[in-house]
Amino acid sequence: MSNIDQPAAAPPHAPSGEQFIEMQNSPQFQELKARLRKFIFPMTAFFLIWYAIYVLLGAFAHDFMAIQVWGNINLGLILGLLQFVTTFVITGLYVRFANRELDPRAEAIRNEMEGGPSL
């Protein structure tokens, strides 16, 4: 018997609007939101401050940014490239955080809402 001949699995239970609202008010959903916020807000603040410092240095500290570090490479270029590095590092940290902290909790909530197996 091929996969085409096999009956399709039953679709997951579709929760009602009331069930979604009830889940939003549940302690497990509130914990999920709190964990997300504890990561997102400080990381966003860090990056915005770091970016603002870079922009302000570029606008008002020309001599500092023009310091030659190696050959024609100056401090402004290095700090600008570090903006990209910071973005990739923050992205990697978020992915690791989401895989460890958020995804298992979200999966448990989804399974509860759809009537599937709990983790």
From TrEMBL:
Cited InterPro entries: DUF485
Name of the protein this chain belongs to: Clumping factor B
PANTHER family: INTEGRAL MEMBRANE PROTEIN-RELATED, MEMBRANE PROTEIN
Pfam families tied to this protein: DUF485 (PF04341)
Keyword Transmembrane helix on entry: yes
TM stretches of this protein: 39-61, 73-95
Keywords tagged on the record: Membrane, Transmembrane, Transmembrane helix
Keyword field contains Membrane: yes
